[in-house]
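re: the backbone from monday

yeah here it is again, tokenized this time
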């Protein structure tokens, strides 16, 4: 997971060239109303494919991310940004380390549907950050969803409250690179081990989502519902076994499997249960399984 390090180097090179590197494929436009009104995961039989683009995504200094809401979030709630725990400005949390309600003034570039920069959003705190069981960071902004939508016409992406399904068509949307990867959920890793970190029930991609440094924190979007089902976080780069940048899968019997060139994401369906009204984090709520400090 040297994604932040790669990302910062790429940023320096991109600044010298006058633009972010990486060609972004053209995607069909997605209306903000479609995102805002998506409350539940729709099945592929019941709903047409959503038009997935860069609306609702953000670029960090070293990673990708997304403007997100919980299924029960209100328009007046303080807005949230989702990324990886290993993208935190304070560095990678160690195993067992959980960051909660830590002050932050980090900024994020809000993107338009076509990938253009619309605005700079600013955090007030890291609501949650960890690399234990999952790899997630959640920032609270100094503005509300309604304010962002009224000013910039961008609605947040909704985090799905249901477990992702094998075979689902997905899009990994990188705000950092302005690139969208298309593939499917190949399956799930019981345990995903990378160096000192272990993640639970990770999403495994089919090979076409060959994510690179800087894509860390990208929302993994269900191509049918338009909802976020996971957050992109790693790939086995060169076939090594359970080392940094080379995660391995460990099944329930302890058997280790290495899949060179295969990427992974961390599920997000458990996050909404940890948020009360007003987008307030409460790790003691029934159903909340995020690790506690």
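seq for it, each position gets an aa:
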């Amino acid at each position: 997971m040297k994604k932040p390090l790669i990302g910062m180097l790429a940023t320096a090179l991109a600044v010298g060239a006058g633009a972010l590197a990486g060609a972004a494929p053209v995607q069909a436009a997605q209306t903000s109303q479609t995102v805002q009104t998506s409350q539940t995961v729709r099945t592929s039989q019941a709903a047409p494919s959503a038009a997935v683009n860069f609306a609702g995504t953000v670029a960090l200094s070293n990673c990708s991310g997304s403007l997100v809401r919980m299924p029960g979030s209100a328009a007046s709630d303080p807005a949230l940004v989702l990324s990886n725990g290993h993208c935190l400005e304070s560095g990678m949390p160690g195993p067992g380390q959980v960051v909660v309600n830590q002050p932050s003034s980090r900024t994020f570039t809000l993107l338009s549907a076509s990938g253009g920069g619309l605005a700079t959003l600013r955090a007030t705190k890291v609501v949650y950050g960890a690399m234990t069981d999952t790899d997630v960071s959640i920032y609270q902004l100094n503005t509300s969803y309604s304010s962002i939508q009224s000013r910039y016409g961008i609605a947040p992406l909704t985090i799905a409250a249901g477990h992702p399904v094998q075979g689902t068509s997905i899009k990994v949307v990188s705000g950092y690179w302005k690139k969208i990867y298309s593939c499917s959920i190949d399956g799930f890793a019981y345990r995903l081990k990378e160096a000192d970190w272990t993640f639970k029930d990770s999403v495994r991609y089919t090979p076409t989502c060959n994510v690179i440094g800087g894509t860390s924190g990208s929302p993994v979007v269900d191509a049918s519902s338009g909802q976020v089902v996971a957050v992109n976080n790693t790939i086995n780069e060169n076939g090594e076994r359970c080392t940094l940048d080379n995660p391995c899968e460990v099944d329930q019997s302890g058997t280790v499997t290495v899949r060179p060139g295969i990427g992974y994401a961390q599920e997000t369906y458990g996050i909404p249960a940890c948020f009360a009204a007003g987008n307030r984090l409460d790790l003691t709520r029934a159903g909340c399984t995020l690790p506690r400090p």
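The two ends are 22 Å apart (CA to CA). The mean pLDDT is 87.
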